[in-house]
Design a protein that fits this description.
CATH architecture: 3-Layer(aba) Sandwich
Order of helices and strands: EEHEHEHEHEHH
Strand order of the largest sheet: 1-3-2-4-5-6
CATH topology: Rossmann fold
Radius of gyration: 14 Å
Number of strands: 6
CATH class: Alpha Beta
Largest sheet: 6 strands, mixed
CATH superfamily: Response regulator
Helix content: 40-55%
């Protein structure tokens, strides 16, 4: 199972997030970046979709940030499994790849968002594309 972070009573305005990325440095960077935001709380993290599916279904986060290119179960299969059990959880895919086929697959499995890592680490870990997308997607009603 992935690393579990302690949960506490969450207020309605706190977005509960689960991070899935096979690169520990990226996963830790995303987690640290989100920890600096008062409206986000990371409730868990994993290095693969295989590790993440069970804890995501159990913890029912508001948002999952999931890398596209990981070993094991594909992120697209993971989204379908998660969607079948936890419909309200929103999934935002993060990737370093700008391939049309990834975007097409993301749309096909109804991912809620798609963020490129290509902005560079400085902008990626600032409140730019990723944090703005999480905030926007987490506030959507459907």
């Amino acid at each position: 199972m992935g690393n579990q972070f302690p949960s506490s009573n969450t207020k309605a305005e706190i977005t509960r997030i689960y991070v899935v990325d096979d690169h520990g440095l990226v996963r830790d960077g995303i987690t640290s970046s989100l920890a600096n935001e008062s409206d986000f709380r990371v409730i868990g993290a994993a290095g693969s979709a295989d590790e993440a599916i069970g804890p995501i279904i159990e913890s029912r986060p508001d948002v999952v940030l999931m890398d596209i290119d990981m070993p094991g179960v594909s992120c697209f299969d993971a989204i379908q499994i998660i969607r079948s059990r936890v419909e309200q959880t929103r999934v935002i895919l993060v990737t370093a790849h700008e391939h049309d086929e990834y975007l097409e697959q993301a749309l096909k499995v109804k991912a809620n968002g798609y963020v490129l890592k290509s902005e560079g680490m400085g902008r990626w870990f600032g409140r730019s594309a990723m944090l703005s997308t999480v905030g926007c997607i987490s506030r959507r009603k459907s």
